[in-house]
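Working notes for the structural subgroup meeting. M.R. asked for a predicted model of this chain before we commit to crystallization trials. I am recording the input and output together here so anyone reviewing the notebook later can reproduce the run.

Input as submitted:
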Amino acid sequence: MFTPEQYRAQAVEYSRLVKIAKSPTEVREFQRLERTFTELADNAQWAVDNHDKSLHATSGSTGASKSKVGSPAASAQATVGRLGAWCLPALSGLTVES
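Returned structure, recorded in token form:
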């Protein structure tokens, strides 16, 4: 995984390439890559800044097998399972029939 600084360095490099691009197509591509790496840097920085506010797996945890029925963790896992059943096919362009 890259650090925010590494992503920002890539964004700066693409910004430099925009200035020396030889065609409009190159300019657009380098601008797109600059934006992409800037967004990746912003997201990576957010993850660093909010690490203490996010959920983390405990050491040795294997997921659902460790949760008791009715516990908040089991409820969250059930919700993620339901969302996953809907999201994954939707994202891949497949439909789920029941």
